[in-house]
Amino acid sequence: SSRSKLMSSTSSSKMAPLVADKHSRYILMAEKKKESFESVVMDHLRMNGAYWGLTTLDLLEKLGSVSEDEVVSWLMTCQHESGGFAGNTGHDPHILYTLSAVQILALFDKLNILDVEKVSTYVAGLQNENGSFSGDMWGEIDTRFSYIAIYCLSILKCLGKINVEKAVDYIMSCKNLDGGFGCTPGGESHAGQIFCCVGALAITGNLHRVDKDVLGWWLCERQKECGGLNGRPEKDPDVCYSWWVLSSLIMIDRVHWIDKAKLVKFILACQDLDNGGISDRPNDAVDIFHTYFGVAGLSLLEYPGVKAIDPAYALPVDVINRIIFTK
Ligand code: GRG
Ligand code: ZN
């Protein structure tokens, strides 16, 4: 079946395997010749980059090579008095960075150092009258922020602080006739936005409100001849959609509608076999973002040697189990 198809197809050609150690080394060095991952995080990658790099290392069972204390003490300097986190020390808080901070603390099993009341008050305070969420005090509204707010409050066990019903109704108002979702009502369907909406519906137990066959069809049409996935019709395939599309297909139980073996090949073909890292498409320059999405995609595809990742929370399954099933 699909697993044997995966085996035969990967062994029949001379495809290079996942060069996991090189990817770990690439992340630890993060394009500079700096000594430690921590200094690179502080200087260049900031909060989102830290989440991408650290999650990739954990999926490859290499999180132990990072100094947890250094990362966590830097991370806490990014917290603003409002409770939200910034992308780096001294910057302004935003819900995007607040999620990355919560995710990093979850990876290190350090959520207990958070002032949960403060962080959850910041996140809940971004909900608008119509149920939508703004990204920060300036007010831009996007279903990305709905997903992030629901995610943070779920992990912190504070969903009671927002109006979940209104939040879900707002997300449903961003659904299109093609089965997909956009960033606001009427916005074009895009795989990244679909991931956010489906993820928020999954976390709140509302997946029954998705038309799984219509959405599943739109999502599986993202696979191109080369095996890679694109983010919407007429666009080029890109490794990051191995995450946005595949996680959505898994959440709605339609992952068998794509050719998994062909997608594995596409991701593996985007590796830099010499220096590590994964690019958006074959022969492009690698970056930490696509390295994360390539490894996370392979995790969803059950590639050997990569830990399982949760499709709704985008963190290793063991991390999510530890949080959801305790206290
Ligand atoms: C926890 C994984 C995780 C995410 C947090 C920030 C966020 C929540 C989600 C972002 C969802 C999103 C909109 C992703 C799309 C990112 C992307 C590759 C955009 C590029 O769009 P275009 O139009 O590129 O520039 P295409 O591929 O369409 O040509
Ligand atoms: Zn991309």
UniProtKB/TrEMBL annotation:
Any GO MF annotation of the entry: Rab geranylgeranyltransferase activity
EC number: 2.5.1.60
Top-level taxonomic group: Eukaryota
Keywords from the named record: Metal-binding, Prenyltransferase, Repeat, Signal, Transferase, Zinc
Cofactor: Zn(2+)
GO biological process: gametophyte development; root development
Reactions mediated catalytically: geranylgeranyl diphosphate + L-cysteinyl-[protein] = S-geranylgeranyl-L-cysteinyl-[protein] + diphosphate
Domain Prenyltransferase alpha-alpha toroid as annotated: residue spans: 19-314
Listed GO CC annotations: Rab-protein geranylgeranyltransferase complex
Physiological role: Catalyzes the transfer of a geranylgeranyl moiety from geranylgeranyl diphosphate to both cysteines of proteins with the C-terminal sequence -XXCC, -XCXC and -CCXX.
Quaternary assembly: Heterotrimer composed of the alpha subunit RGTA, the beta subunit RGTB and REP; within this trimer, RGTA and RGTB form the catalytic component, while REP mediates peptide substrate binding.
Protein family according to the UniProt entry: Belongs to the protein prenyltransferase subunit beta family.
Name this polypeptide is given: Geranylgeranyl transferase type-2 subunit beta
Parent-protein residues present: 78 to 404 of 404
